[in-house]
């Protein structure tokens, strides 16, 4: 029975709990076996405490036995990204500069919400150092690999969460996204991930080096499961985040089945002329766009008139990394990922006026996108312009510089504009790896993004890699 359990969605598992077909302990044991079996190859989890995880499952089992579950995901396994503070679990942030014995006495708001809803926390998932790049490897934890092909990267910086999710090491996974770190690994591993409108999910500790570009959110194998986890994460404001939306508690599963008929959707395959896609990716996204036309949406190819956003992320991201490096001692600096140090060094070409100018132009980008979106319910772009490349490498094949912003041109603009954006799997490229498209919505219209993703998923259910069930 364990083999079939791990393939179930969180939504299905909750029904099985309610009908006393399975228990949280059975499921948790199955997930822990899955982790034990496949984590040595994939390196998705970097911290586990099976005793604590099983104790949480037993407590949930007792509540379900009484017919009195507490919370929306009582007894459902959930992993936490290693950038996210969690009581009782070390938060190393993928860095040898962090203290493994530091106090573990703070829960980030998303973890506190998961505990309120009685998730079974399984452990910490891998991230590159301080989440600085779009692949997942670090001097501290090594290389994380893609379940579709362990020779390939799962992307990053939530690559551990993605590798765990795609290999059935639990149905729900917490991720975060400062420039695409939910959507990049979702696209590379065939998962659904959404970066909600900034302020939807309480944010603490604030990633002070990138400020309000950072977002917490869900990774899952289905849209409904992601909507469920987003509902948990955004169930109430948190006083530690002054920017949280004043109205919380929306159930993001409501309206999921309402479809896209009558919606007006812009298809922007180059996002204003600054993005690109390999031919196989473009063909898959073109086909996905046709699905929306058949579902009754009014889809037109239209590119927003936006300023050059590549330069903005170069300035903001490299200077943010230099800020982190400047907080370190000389001994700590000697321990960091050489690529991280190189990016920080790159930022020395910029001064404070460049940084202020970049943030000012990011506001111009947000205004231009808001004006463009006034005429459309949604916009579609590719998620990633290429398939996942070799694990342990930072440079994508054929790329001029290899910097992550060059091979991920569609993600980070929406961290600057604060719009909701989701990655939706839409098939496979020529090398057999997943490809995806991105759905972008107006501010606070995340429900439309989820509806549109679910409409596509109904027509083309997402595939998962073989060999893990």
Quick summary:
By secondary structure, this protein is α/β, with parallel strands linked by helices. The chain has helices spanning 2-5, 10-18, 24-42, 50-65, 109-116, 159-166, 183-189, 223-233, 279-294, 310-326, 330-333, 338-346, 352-373, 404-407, 413-417, 446-459; strands at residues 45-48, 77-81, 120-125, 137-138, 142-143, 172-177, 192-195, 215-220, 264-267, 298-301, 378-382, 421-428, 434-441.
The biggest beta sheet is recorded as: 11 strands, mixed
CATH class: Alpha Beta
Number of extended strands:
13
- The share of residues in extended strands comes to 5-15%
Overall shape: it is: globular
Account of the protein in words:
With 469 residues, this protein is α/β, with parallel strands linked by helices. The protein has a single domain, classed as Alpha-Beta Complex (Amidase signature (AS) enzymes). Helices cover 37% and strands 14% of the residues. It has 16 helices and 13 strands. The protein has helices at residues 2-5, 10-18, 24-42, 50-65, 109-116, 159-166, 183-189, 223-233, 279-294, 310-326, 330-333, 338-346, 352-373, 404-407, 413-417, 446-459; strands at 45-48, 77-81, 120-125, 137-138, 142-143, 172-177, 192-195, 215-220, 264-267, 298-301, 378-382, 421-428, 434-441. The strands form two sheets. An eleven-stranded mixed beta sheet has the order 1-3-2-6-8-7-12-13-11-9-10, sandwiched between helices. A two-stranded antiparallel sheet has the order 4-5. Helix 3 (24-42) runs antiparallel to helix 4 (50-65). The mean pLDDT is 96.
């Amino acid at each position: 029975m364990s083999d079939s359990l791990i393939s179930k969605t969180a939504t299905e598992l909750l029904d099985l709990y309610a009908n006393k077909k399975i228990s949280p302990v059975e499921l948790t044991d199955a997930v822990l076996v899955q982790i034990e079996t496949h984590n040595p190859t994939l390196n998705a989890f970097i911290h586990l405490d099976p005793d604590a995880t099983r104790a949480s499952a037993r407590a949930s089992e007792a509540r379900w036995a009484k017919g009195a579950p507490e919370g929306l995901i009582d007894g459902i396994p959930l992993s936490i990204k290693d950038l996210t503070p969690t009581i009782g679990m070390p938060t190393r942030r993928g860095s040898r500069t962090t203290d493994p014995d530091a106090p573990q006495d703070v829960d980030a708001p998303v973890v506190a919400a998961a505990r309120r809803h009685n998730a079974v926390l399984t452990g910490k998932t891998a991230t590159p150092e301080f989440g600085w790049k779009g692949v997942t490897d670090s001097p501290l934890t090594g290389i994380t690999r893609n379940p579709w092909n362990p020779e390939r990267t799962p992307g990053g910086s939530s690559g551990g969460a993605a590798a765990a999710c795609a290999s059935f090491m639990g149905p729900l996974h917490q991720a975060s996204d400062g420039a695409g770190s939910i959507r990049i690994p979702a696209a590379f591993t065939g998962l659904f991930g959404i970066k909600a409108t900034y302020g939807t999910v309480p944010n603490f500790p604030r990633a002070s080096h990138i400020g309000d570009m950072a977002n917490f959110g869900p990774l899952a194998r289905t849209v409904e499961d992601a909507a469920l986890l987003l509902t948990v994460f955004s169930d109430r404001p948190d006083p530690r985040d002054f920017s949280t939306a004043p109205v919380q508690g929306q159930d993001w599963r409501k309206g999921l089945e309402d479809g896209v008929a009558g919606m007006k959707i812009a298809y922007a395959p180059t996002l204003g002329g600054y993005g690109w896609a390999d031919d196989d990716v473009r063909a898959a996204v073109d086909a996905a766009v046709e699905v929306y036309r058949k579902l009754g949406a009014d889809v037109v190819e239209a590119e927003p008139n936006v300023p050059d956003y590549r330069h903005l992320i170069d300035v903001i991201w490299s200077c943010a990394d230099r800020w982190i490096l400047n907080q370190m001692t000389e001994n700590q600096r000697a321990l960091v990922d050489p690529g991280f140090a190189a990016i920080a060094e790159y930022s020395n070409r910029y001064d404070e006026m460049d940084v202020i100018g970049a943030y000012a132009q990011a506001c111009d980008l947000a205004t231009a996108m808001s004006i463009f979106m006034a005429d459309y319910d949604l916009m579609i772009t590719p998620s990633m312009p290429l398939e996942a490349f070799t694990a342990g490498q930072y440079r994508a094949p054929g790329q001029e510089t290899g910097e992550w912003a060059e091979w991920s041109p569609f993600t980070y603009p929406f961290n600057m504009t604060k719009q909701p954006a989701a990655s939706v799997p839409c098939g496979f490229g020529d090398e057999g790896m997943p490809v995806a498209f991105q759905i972008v919505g107006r501010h606070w219209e995340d429900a439309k993004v989820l509806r549109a993703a679910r409409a596509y998923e109904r027509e083309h259910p997402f595939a998962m890699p073989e060999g893990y069930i």
